[in-house]
Design goal:
The chain is an all-alpha fold. It has 26 helices and 4 strands.
């Protein structure tokens, strides 16, 4: 098996999932790149999540009474699901259609939105947008329960056009008012929010009841509307269909997809003023959007099989989000593969790094890329990853150490030792400067901690090199 195939597979699994062990990469590479992409795009594959175990050991993961149970449950899914792309796509859409606990104060309804992203996130965009427009958490988040016939609230109509589908500069103020009119009557059963909160604080073992979508025909503005040059007595579904036919929508979604899965772009508010990093890639994804009948799956297929995705210039061109860093580190360390109280601690690690799942800072979501990095978060990120990967009691770390020592035959040169450790960390590639620093560290530790001066190995020395890799700037990118 060509080493390059394994490294390319490592790139795919970092972007289409949360990373993978060396053994998994070799298995997938042996099956083939195209076949692996097909497997990842299979939305009918079983996820392997043991809900019975979760409910037994963490009953709060069923009720989602607060924030901690909800985001801990999602962490568990990201870490243990056999369908990693479904979880990655859910994370992608969560940042686009950012909806937060700060206003909803109910984890259950937010996790049902995440489940909607799993169900429709790789389907066609019109179905996803209609489902989102009927989602109770989105209705409350953007005040559509206050959007009435004769007294419109523009919040949802504005964000649907500005942040969810087309982007600034592709519609008029009148268009968003007409969109708001079309979504009048789209509300939540028992729309008085205080009443809903009281109604949904039901007792265990069932936890809170979910909010429910309700369409109220008498509150819908059934008059003629003019939207993006089209005239008719439009309802919300009609608005979505018109939006999805626009070239601007294809390009906007394509740029979001490139930003999340390929390479960091500027924050969304800068997009009207800064061109895409790779305009040709946006064209390819937009073409796949239309040729696939507005299919997100076909856009992803075009992305993962494209030359621009495989090109080494975009490998490690993204700063890992806190969720990606924490989940990826836990995967290779072999930790939290069963229900564990430390799940909440791990989501706490994400929070200190700047990302609280299901509670984005605003409707814009999190600004990604280098904005994940600051003086405080850098220290938190390095400390977390280094501590986890340097812990020889964790099963994945112990397994990596054993394989490095077995393959080296008990001894290895500092350079060879570093390369073997990089491979076991998921076929990681590092810069020349990082490699030089790692080799120097391996040379200095030769003979220390019980290792033999002739190059012999022990667990502590190998663990130290793995820890240094996890602490490197290169590891913070994916």
């Amino acid at each position: 098996m060509a080493e390059q195939d394994v490294r390319l597979m490592g790139h795919l699994m970092r972007r289409a999932g949360f990373g993978a062990s060396r053994d998994e990469l070799e298995r997938r590479a042996a099956k083939g790149y195209q076949a692996t992409v097909t497997d990842l795009l299979d939305t009918d594959a079983p996820d392997g999540i043991r809900h019975d175990l979760l409910r037994r050991y963490h009953p709060d993961y069923s009720g989602f009474i607060g924030l901690s149970g909800a985001h801990s449950y999602w962490l568990y899914r990201m870490l243990n699901s056999n369908t990693p792309l479904l979880e990655k796509v859910a994370l992608f859409w969560h940042n686009v259609f950012a909806t937060g606990y700060a206003k909803l104060t109910q984890g259950k309804v937010l996790m049902e939105q995440i489940a909607t992203f799993r169900k429709h996130g790789m389907g066609d965009l019109p179905t996803l947008l209609v489902a989102l427009s009927k989602d109770p958490s989105m209705i409350i988040w953007l005040d559509n329960q206050e959007n009435h016939n004769g007294a419109i609230n523009e919040n949802y109509g504005r964000e649907l056009l500005e942040l969810f589908s087309m982007g600034v500069g592709n519609y008029t103020e009148q268009d968003l008012k007409e969109a708001a009119r079309a979504f009048t009557g789209w509300t939540v059963a028992n729309t008085e929010y205080v009443t809903m909160k009281a109604r949904n604080d039901s007792l265990w073992p069932y936890g809170r009841s979910a909010f429910e979508f309700e369409y109220r025909p008498k509150d819908h503005d059934n008059g003629t509307k003019t939207f993006l040059g089209h005239n008719g007595r439009f309802n919300g579904e009609d608005i979505v269909q018109i939006i999805c036919r626009q070239p601007a929508t294809a390009r906007f979604v394509a740029r979001h997809m490139y930003h999340f899965f390929v390479a960091d772009e500027p924050p969304v508010p800068q997009w009207p003023y800064q061109p895409p990093r790779d305009p040709r890639a946006i064209d390819i994804l937009s073409q796949a959007y239309f040729e696939g009948g507005y299919s997100i799956r076909e856009m992803l297929r075009a992305l993962f099989t494209s030359d621009f995705f495989k090109d080494k210039s975009v490998w490690y061109a993204k700063v890992k989000s806190p969720a990606e860093l924490v989940v990826g580190t836990l995967k290779i360390s072999g930790d939290l593969r069963k229900p564990d109280p430390r799940m909440q601690q791990m989501t706490g690690e994400m929070m200190t790094m700047g990302q609280t799942l299901i509670n984005p800072p605003s409707v814009e979501g999190w600004h990604q890329g280098t904005e994940w990095i600051n003086t405080g978060s850098s220290m938190d990120r390095v400390n977390f990853s280094a501590k986890a990967i340097g812990d020889i009691t964790r099963p994945g770390v112990n397994e990596m150490i054993g394989k490095v020592m077995a393959e080296a035959g008990g001894k290895a040169s500092p350079r060879d030792l570093v390369e073997r450790c990089l491979d076991q960390m998921g076929a990681v590639t590092v810069s020349d400067n990082t490699r030089k620093a790692l080799v120097n560290f391996a040379a200095k530790t030769q003979g220390a901690g019980g290792a033999q001066p002739n190059g012999g190995l022990d667990e502590k020395r190998v663990a130290g090199i793995l820890e240094m890799i996890a602490a490197s700037p290169d590891y913070q990118r994916g």
